Amino acid sequence: MPSPTPPDALSLRYGLNDLRRNAGVTAALSVVLVLTAALLTGGALAMERLTGSIDQLFDQARPPHFLQMHVGAYDPAALDAFAADHPQVRDWLVEEMVGFDSAALSWTRPGTGEGGSFAASVIDNLFVAQNEGFDLLLGPDGRAARPAPGEVFLPVAQQRTFGVRAGDVLTVQTLAGPRDLTVAGFVRDAQMASSLSSATRLLVTPEDLAALNAAGGGAPEIIVEYRLDDPAGAAALQAAYERTPDLPRNGQAITYDMIRLINTFSDGLVAIALMFVSLVLMVIALLNLRFVIRGTLEDEVRQIGVMKAIGLPNATIVGLHLARYRLMAAGSCLIGGALGIGAAQALSAAAAGSYAAAPITPATILIPLAALVAVYLITVGMCRGVLRGVRRVQVVDALVHGSLMDDRRTAATAARQARLARRGGLAHGRLGLAARLALRDLRADARQWALLPAVFGLAAIVMILPTTLLSTFTDPRFVTYLGAPDADLRADLAFSPTLDADRDRLVAAWASDPRVTDVRPYATVLFQARGAEGWEALRAEVGDYTGATVSFAEGRAPVPGEIALSHLNASKLGLATGDTLTLRRGDAETSVRISGTYSDVTSGGYTAKLPGEVTHDASAYVVYADAAGGADAEALAADLAAASPAASVIGMREYTRQTLAHITDAFARAAAVAVGFGLGVATLITVLFLKLRLARERRSLGVLSALGFSGRELAAQLRLKTLLTAGAGTALGVVLAATAGDALVGTLVSAAGLGVARFTLLPDVPLTYLAYPLGLLAAALIGAQLLGRGLRRADKSRWLA
């Protein structure tokens, strides 16, 4: 006598047979689960790889825990004394730099005649020599790059932006004439790798640095850098630095945490976006699994009744049905995990090039494994929860009536459906009979059709939010988050011996140019502000803030006797709108009232706005203007730049694009993935849902066919019901994305610590509120058309069998 089949083997065989018997449904559900596992695994692993790349770069380059940029003269003895008075300082240095405007740099390729200019870049180009000890510029091997005389190492970002190669010749236009340097390679910079950084460093020998400085045309600058025993003490050291008189502080101050946040922000957004999409897809998958399982139980209710009648316990019956979903979830997780690892490698390739190759650690294995286990457990757990409905099945009801419900619940359901159906009569109405039938079916079976609105609503959210983030960061109005007015043109004048005269000439030239309107000069002035622990450095832009300038999160623009603070500065000083702040410049002190706060992600986020006019003794000037008559701002900026070589002139749209290049590139990739998956999943689920619905409605369709309804009319009913439910879900998703999504994303971005106090999404209305909803409706229509063809060709005589 053969031995009985073990329970596990029986469940496995039952599950495999079930998968083969329902291959179409299994394939559709598996695709959604595979995408869920792939995106969640890929996003989690990409974040781990990005963090590992930055950690590796920071370990190799050893960036400062606190740095202070400075333009102008300084007292080295004061720096020595400060370091001696603070034993937490492990090491410190002063990095000498010579900054050149991008218009002064160009490159050529020997032997080919190829070349180009850096003039389109708004980034300051700072020539430096290699540091010793820390803040190293690294070559591809992770070691400090060492140029030979006459050579230069460019940052990786310039290699990607301008297509420069090793062996090309970089030409620097100095006052003494052009100076050529051979590109020896490319370096990774832990301090200035992000596009949010206002400058980038180019590595030369100390001798070449001295020669560039002596040749003129560049602006000498320094960075005072400190490494601490405990990086957590950077904020305290910064506060002490700003309280100490005679220290160089004519520039922005940055801490280790800010450097890390800026480096992580752009690429990290892609990983977060992918994980968000994966979570929404998981919800879609779970909704569909619930629908499929309930339908399967209805189809197999008599088999369940037989199993109960022969004495099989509920746990065994649940286990037999659960085996199918265990196998499907396990297979989907394995395939999705493999795809996710490949996607993570593609996403992290750019990070490895910009930062460093991340080492393989236990987290590299555990994080994606945990993501896959989570997908599997959540999926199986939900399936188990739905299958517990088997316990409520009565043997008599299952075998005699073929129903999962007892007599009382069956009667209540029938009464509810009849009541809903009576509300929409068939005898009268402006719509045709087929349309009225479709609407009545939707009312009577609203719960059965609820899946489609849910799926399409979630798909709309998945598609709209990443795209809206992209449109927000590329919208010209986003410049107000950079602490700048919504203008067409921007000119920057950096510190130089002729700075004040250059400012006067540029303002006069623009004011007399009929192509330019609304010229607004602003001066960057260094003040000291009285904080809780003493005097602190405060960089303020002094100018005219009447009219539409900066967008204020709280309060309003300052008038004489007032000041507006950036969000981070207000938090740092512990001040709010209406409070009073004491300022000091030189020996003069004055008290001003806080008129409001605004968002700013530039200069580390620590800025201020003062009304007035400063025409001399400023550390820098920036001039904004509009193009008259709607002229091309970029073309006008090029003409004005040629006429004002002392200034860096650029269109504000291009300035915003370059400043946020890493972020917008990241969002563009995430938005493309989200749109593709949203449309694909919506189409797939529509086909799956309609296939199952038609299988269960065969008898009612057979009755309609016997009454004289043609296959074309039945297909039209199907299309109408599909479009109505999909349209309702899409509309709900659009509304949720525009309301709750706006609040959610705004909260997350504001909490990132970049200096954004109030973040409002700026959607591309034609795309997100017209094209995407129409795309989803088209997906629903495609699914209905595919299934409708089967209705027209089907042998209707078998529907009543």
From TrEMBL:
What is the membrane topology noted in the UniProt record heading this document? Multi-pass membrane protein
Task: Report the main location listed first in the record.
Answer: membrane
Q: Does the keyword Acetylation apply?
A: no
Organism domain of life: Bacteria
* Subcellular location as annotated: Cell membrane
Q: Which residues cross the membrane?
A: 23-47, 268-293, 305-323, 335-357, 363-383, 449-470, 666-690, 722-749, 769-788
- Show the GO cellular component annotation of the record: plasma membrane
- The ABC3 transporter permease C-terminal domain covers 275-380, 673-793
Alphabetical UniProt keywords: Cell membrane, Membrane, Transmembrane, Transmembrane helix
InterPro entries this protein is in?
ABC3_permease_C (IPR003838), Membrane_comp_ABC_pdt (IPR038766)
- Cell membrane recorded as keyword: yes
What is this protein identified as? ABC transporter permease
Task: Give the source species.
Answer: Propioniciclava coleopterorum
